[in-house]
Write the structure tokens for this entry.
Amino acid sequence: MKIGLYFGTYNPIHVGHLIIANHMAEFAGLDQVWMVVTPHNPLKKKATLLDDHQRLQMVFLATEDYLKIKPSDIEFKLPQPNYTVNTLVHLQEKYPTHDFSLIMGEDNLKTLHKWKNYEVILDHYDIYVYPRISEEAENIELKAHPKVHIIDAPIVEISSTFIRNSIKEGKNIQPLLPPKVWEYIDHNNFYKK
């Protein structure tokens, strides 16, 4: 089974994340997309980052109607701080019959050369890249790498930061969130302070 791993803090998950995950599941030759919730780094200031399990719950609520999109807490169980290369090794050991790949935006591809053991990732895993609006996107050297696949996905310019700030300001951003996620956030008064 071909699994695309889509990492994020999902603080909160929004319709942009779902559009990209669904597009990858339907049009990139993947059997499933696992939305891997990145745990809170204990060395970093928490600020507006919700608890790991609250963010996982939002991903679960957002994806439960999508057969090809699954929430994943795999990184919650790994030593922190965690690196993507370690997660990939762990998943390959746990699911030896699965073929894992990464899903990332062009902005992340631009900085991939700074990741721990990025050469190992490029040697062993396909990377599916969705477009971002960026001046520097054209100059990414890794775009030509045989393991890098640029996917003609919709460009979605919605950010979790924008959503958190808008909620804090009392704006109605309901259309940017899956309905069950909006209800969960509203019920728990998240991001209002």
Notes: The longest strand covers residues 2-8. The chain has a mean pLDDT of 91.
